[in-house]
Amino acid sequence: MDIRDRYKFEENGSEISLMPNYSFLRALLWWLVLGMIALPVILYYFMDKMSGDQFKIAMGLWSVYMIYFLFDLLFRVPVKYIFNKSEKCIYRKVLFSRKLMNFDEMTYFVNDERGGYYYSIGKKRNQFVKNYRISNYFSGSKASERREDEYIKEILCPILIAVGIPLNQEGQ
Predict the structure, then answer these.
(1) Is the four-CA dihedral 51, 52, 53, 59 of positive or negative sign?
(2) Are 20 and 136 in contact (CB under 8 A)?
């Protein structure tokens, strides 16, 4: 899968858009299918072998599992960031669009977390208080470094050129 397809990156004359979580869609759908297959197994196979309380606990765990994945499917995967060149604004769209910041307020940085890192954007004055992840997690492996190089070249550079921010080459 191409890096532009993994992020559903689209660039036209007036705007750039990307969906940072789009690559998780395929895996998420497989986990949802697995959860749907688990329901009849729990109902027909384990219903007779469990007590009433154990069955309620199993159904509760299954419900939490399904709600978590449905929440991800409906509210995390479809997050789209739109960099509107004509208005010089950045929007975040889930169900409706919301203006995040103007181009001149934006800064980008690498956010280290739990043994991995990712690229984020935020307002210059409070980027560490409220920021938005615009890439997948990267690690120190060779495959991850290759994906990061592709990401920088194909996605981050066009965004930074549109916004008017120079690429920080210190870690490269």
Answers:
(1) positive
(2) yes
